[in-house]
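Minutes, structural biology subgroup

Action item carried over from last meeting: produce the structure token record for Concanavalin A-like lectin/glucanase superfamily protein (Sphingobacterium alimentarium). EB confirmed the sequence was re-checked against the source entry. Recorded below for completeness.
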Amino acid sequence: MKTEKLQRNIKLLVLTLLTISLFGRCQEDFSKTIPLPGEDEEIDVVYGERKVLLLIVDGARGQSVRDAKTPTLTRLLPKAIHTWVGLSEENAQGIAANWTDIFTGVNYVKHGVVDNNFATNKLDIYPSIFSRITEFNPNAKIEIISPNSEFIANYGTDAEAKLATNDNDVKNKVIATLATTDLSMVTAHFEDVLQAGENSGFDLSFPQYREAINSFDSTVDEILKALEKREQYAREDWLVIITSSQGGHFEIPPTENDNTIFSNPTLNTFSIFYSPKYSSKFIGKPYIGNKLSGEFMRFNDVKYAELPTENELFNLGNADFTIELKIKKNRGSNNNYRFSHPSIIGKRQTWQGGWDRELMYGWVIHLSDNFWVFNARGDKGYGEVKADQNQRLNDATWNTITIVGLHREDKRWVRLYTNGQFNREADITGWGNLDSEWPLRIGFLPTRESWRSDAYLADVKIWKTAMPDDMVRQFSCDLGVDPNHPYYDNLAGFWPIIGSNTGGKIMDDGPFGAHLNLGNANYPTTVLNDFICAPSTTQLGQLVPRTYDISAQIISWLKVPRQLNWQLDGRVWLDK
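Output recorded by EB:
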């Protein structure tokens, strides 16, 4: 009996210990989860003695800092995550938008600072990184030092703020601060590089700008030496972040211009995340895509190419179809890449306002803002479908537009794709038959409006079948049509529009030879060598460090639990 009782007691003790262990583990895991908005977010998690030194320099182009090969920054790279192709806020109209990106971890749409006027700021909703840190750790000691009073006034409310007289005074104040023992984070802001760029130019070819970058490097050296002299430095775990808030305007050589966001020197930043514990990780310019090279026709103003007679082959009727083309937009009359409704291809008498009332049977693809639209009128109805979801049209590089008409579940649909990515679909059953007695035309359609495009068009294909999604993706960035293409037998027309025009015609390399007559036999061509189907600006921005990533990196380093309701846009970069 005693033996059985002892065994029962042992089993009970083991079960109790297991329960306590599991409960403790669940408590620990629970304390690290991200609460839902509105829930109690009190977190009780013990972390190590981690600290952050953040050095922000205005106007330092990443490429210029890279090419300067300054000794201090170069010395950090073997133990740093680093990039020379970082990006600042594309829509910034003033440097304060980039500062606010850095400190809030969200983009300008959320924090509301677009220019240097803080009147529209939403810092009450998206507060600074300092506020996030002190909410988690009320004992955190944070200092921010800058020679700019606006900088201090708007970002220094949750930190001990010190206004300096100039960059040299910033350095001296940082060195003095680092001599104190009780620190969690120090932020220092420098302006001399920006001022040098504005006075001379933002490139190393200007001695004043080069000297300013070299001087900043020397400043960093003095600050790091002061950091390493801290009494407790060996027992502290510092992350040093050195980053530029933005670059500066400079006309880069045409051979270096890929017409993507990476060719805008104003947006070109650098970032160095240094820790003795890090391995070296370089984040370079991402792969952008293949290039489309050759002579191309510019369809601007009223330029067009048209079939000499109506051809029923290109009617859309009630049947399935696929239309594909490549387009490279130029700057329009507003000196940007946004357009108001100009046609790029269609089969209808006219394209103008009143299309919903006037009997303009047929179809047209036209530009609108920074996307494209399929518009049609049939014998029963009319409408349009906008490709304004997901990826928009990239500026100044080649894009592929695809529209597929298909039947599904006794209804007729159109599906729109940009660069092979599905964008939007719509039920067009109510439009009826989309036939038109007017000839197919590429470029300008007759109109009473002032709608004018400015774009290169190429690789136009019309198929008498509905191309499935996987085929659209697979071939969207290819050129030409291989006879082994799985849908080659359904090809109705193929106009490469590459090379000089032949006798005032655009030749159809498809099976039916439906050659197009140019509006003027002397339309010129231009030699181009540009990327095709390049990732969107949003996609590219996710592949390199951006200004709003700085906050995410700091929060991660300090092990402040990131909350979903903060709605941070920034990501954390790892050295693996």
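Discussion: The radius of gyration is 30 Å.
Next step: EB to file the record with the rest of the batch.
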